Amino acid sequence: MIFQATFCHFLEKDAYGNEVTREARPLPVEYLLVDVPVSTPLEPVFTFAAGSHKPFPVENRPIDGHLQDVSALASYLNQFSRHRFIDAASDFHFLIYIATMDMLPLMESMDPLLEAIRSKDAALANEWASGDQWSTVLQLLAHADQMSTTGQPMEEGTAGDATGTPWTCLHCTFINMPNLSSCVLRVSDDVTLGWAEYMDEALMVGEILR
Questions:
Q1: Which domain holds residue 202?
Q2: Measuring CA to CA, which residue among 44, 57, 115, 54 is closest to residue 86?
């Protein structure tokens, strides 16, 4: 199709096989039709079957209460036995999170896990979970849990107590001063500042915890 100024033209073959330019008035409907091949299996097999457990939060839905963070990951994993890791891993949103999480993205090492889920091989999934990458994630979760015991996690907007104990942010796990009502590292729901920008604040919290 050829566009010239405000006119639209198209090429077609005439009765003698020659390509001739026609003015598209009206525009031929054939140029607006697109073939979209669609097929469905006769017997569909679902990779991610819904179970009785609480599913992992959906990404990009904080307004609906779907918050993906370290706390949500720990709560989700606590529903499953470590010997049945494949049950926990068979959740699409869980896989997206561990593949792209900030603290330790596992995208490059997930091929064996994805194959285990596809073939429903629990032994292969357990083997992957015993590897260094996932073991590191579990250690980080355990460390975050220990940090939360020094101060009770508190929702932002809750009034702090100047004489109380430091509290841990539910979103980023940073330990804040007791008199603060919002986490110093979180500017908004979508922006979390770096640790270096509030090093003085962290040192003050460390002095309190000693």
A1: 167-209
A2: 115
